[in-house]
Design goal:
Glutaredoxin, alpha+beta, 6 helices, three-stranded antiparallel sheet, four-stranded mixed sheet, elongated, 36% helix
């Protein structure tokens, strides 16, 4: 009986480690014929298409890391270390294969971003403040994408060229 309980507890914690993420973008054609990407449907658009990204490939964090993040959220340091609004920030970890793919994609598109390693003090505090549950986590212009796919990173909010 006890081993069954431990097995069920282990399965529940493994399932809880997989972050459920959804990002919805709206692609519309404005009255002037220009393409508009937004997180809300355009009111004056002649044609509209909804693009939804669910469960992008991401590396789940361990239970210990998630507990540490919760502690960080409660600390005063987490409020101080939040990334400035308007910055494009990529939270990553050296061991994460999807993070390497995300960095390579952003570099190939010449996107300017600031990388924060979640295994450093500064990165962990900022990540806790951002509310991340998996890596990579890309933040830009009030939008976020947890995980990596080239299609999700092609949204205009994440495509500002390096200057």
């Amino acid at each position: 009986m006890r081993s069954l309980f431990l097995l069920l507890l282990g399965l529940a914690s493994a399932c809880a480690g997989v972050a459920q993420t959804t990002t919805t973008l709206y692609k519309s054609t404005g009255p002037d014929g220009r393409t508009i990407y937004s997180d809300k449907p355009a009111p004056n658009a002649s044609a509209s298409r909804t693009i939804t990204f669910r469960n992008l490939p991401a590396s789940p964090l361990s239970a210990q890391t998630l507990a540490f993040i919760e502690e960080m959220k409660k600390s005063a340091d987490a409020r101080i270390s939040a990334p400035p609004p308007g910055d494009t920030v990529l939270f990553s970890a050296k061991w994460c294969v999807y993070c390497r793919q995300a960095k390579a994609h952003l570099a190939s598109k010449q996107v300017a971003y600031r990388e924060l390693d979640i295994e450093t003090r500064e990165g962990a505090l900022a990540y806790a403040r951002a509310g991340g549950k998996s890596v990579p986590l890309l933040l830009a212009n009030g939008q976020s994408v947890s995980g990596f796919s080239a299609a999700a990173y092609a949204a205009p909010a994440f495509c500002a060229k390096k200057t």
